[in-house]
Known about the structure:
Blueprint: E1 17-23, E2 31-38, E3 45-50, E4 58-70, E5 76-82, E6 90-95, E7 98-107
Antiparallel strand pairs: 1-2, 2-7, 3-6, 4-5, 4-7
Amino acid sequence: MEKAFTVRLKPKNGSSITKTGLADKPLSPNKITWTIDVNTNLDTIKNAKIVDENIAGLEFDSVKVYHLNVGYDGKLTKGLAIEDITKFPIELGDIDSAYRIEYVTTINDTSSKD
């Protein structure tokens, strides 16, 4: 008699959430591409919701959400896009897998305030 079972390994160095931003050029940038990785530690999260408030001087251009594959060694690989999520807040519901949110903001206000 054969039995099938699934073993779920927790990755090294996973986290609940991380956020990074990359400007389109080093001096006088016009756009920033943001990346938010969610649940790379593969915990079970009930009613997961990602809210990112717009910062004054930045305007949201686009938002894309992807499944994120997490290797046992912590290596992250972007998976398939989730087509029906295009704006914040992002409601993922009950999750036990990882997601990547990528969005672009345009810099509208470059003045500095002293």
